Amino acid sequence: MTHREPDGLRVRLRDVHRSFTTAAGPVHVLRGLDLEVGSGELVVVRGPSGSGKTTLLNIAATIDAPTSGSVELAGRDVAGMGDDALADLRAASVGYVFQSFGLLPVLSAAENVEVPLRLIGTEPGERAARVAEVLERVGLARHARQRPYELSGGQQQRVGVARALVTRPAVLVADEPTGQLDSGTAEQVMALIADLVHSAGVAAVVATHDPALMARADRVLELHDGRLRPA
Ligand SMILES: Nc1ncnc2c1ncn2[C@@H]1O[C@H](COP(=O)(O)OP(=O)(O)OP(=O)(O)O)[C@@H](O)[C@H]1O
């Protein structure tokens, strides 16, 4: 069933379970997990290594599907959606920021940011305007033509944040977005993410081990025994 949420709810996970089959036997990672994130809300998920943070983010981003339970993204229940329809919804509605930046080395900063707009078929003139606007927003307008290797780690992650937000997604998912940055740069990047999330009304789920970053969150949740609880 597909329906629109009346309010600003962008992510809704209900009774989500996720198991994996491994050589050592089945691993039951998520065990009846519930999560709701609204527009303009920044939720940080913490938990020890292996607790299932990446698994949770991938399910919220519809990159992975739960073993059971329901997932709603931008007001749509994704159960039963075909692969193409789900890929279209994901491309339009989700921005993903990776710990390792995930930039294409042969492309300039601006070209990297433009990739998601190409995927959703945005017209060239509109693409150029959106790329310029978001690079300005992350403070990299003067670095638009540089390749990733010509940028610092913090600048590369700013490109990663710009790329994730250029489509104006309903949902931002970030997996240890500051894990490869020094603490000062990490704080700047997290402040940028929080600012953009709040001003653009994006629903954000950020996984991190770093207590310093949790200060930027509207809510901090802990993944424990496959469920979320207030930290
Ligand atoms: N595709 C998979 N196949 C088998 N097991 C998997 C798969 N993905 C994750 N797991 C297992 O699920 C558990 C949770 O992994 P996950 O990567 O979600 O944890 P995490 O909290 O993100 O860890 P970290 O903080 O180290 O990144 C681990 O035991 C992992 O080995």
UniProtKB/TrEMBL annotation:
Residues 11-231 form the ABC transporter domain. The keyword Oxidoreductase does not apply. Keywords: ATP-binding, Nucleotide-binding, Transport. GO terms for molecular function: ATP binding; ATP hydrolysis activity; transmembrane transporter activity. One of its GO terms (cellular component) is membrane protein complex. CDD domains: ABC_MJ0796_LolCDE_FtsE (cd03255). This is ABC transporter, ATP-binding protein. It comes from Serinibacter arcticus.
